[in-house]
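Table 4 source record.
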Amino acid sequence: MRSFFWGIFLLSSGLFLILKHYFNWNVPTVRVLIGLFLISLGLSLLIGGPNFRIQTNMFLDQGRLDISPGEKDYNIVFGEGILDLSDTSMDELADKIDVNVVFGSAKIILPRDAAVSIKANSAFASVQFPDDTNLTFGDRTYLSDPGDKGQADLILDVNTVFGSTEIVY
């Protein structure tokens, strides 16, 4: 969906300025423009929302996050996202990846053959690990080692606040 904020704001501001000049209204222009700004922002959120997504960051949106080679930080705020690491080779991934979920939901799909150390922090949230255990408050470290390598190929740092994160293979 698209954001209609600038269209609504510029159209209503232009209409206001034309009417003010044509009818010679004596009203405070700055106050009215601030009010039109806030009304336009509210209408934009109701109509289509801003849906900000910049590669590895998602705000008020849902979908898949893009995996960028060497990228270390992925954020989901007020949204729902899927971070699929299963099709990405270990050479393209950074050694340590941070995933932050705030007031949202995330699903992280791990590579099947990689040993992954998961350091999860949770505050008023739910983090579900591959072994179907949950963390609701506090922190926990979990080693997902399907090939019995003994050490992690990838360190995944997951921070979830007022949301949910599901980590699966």
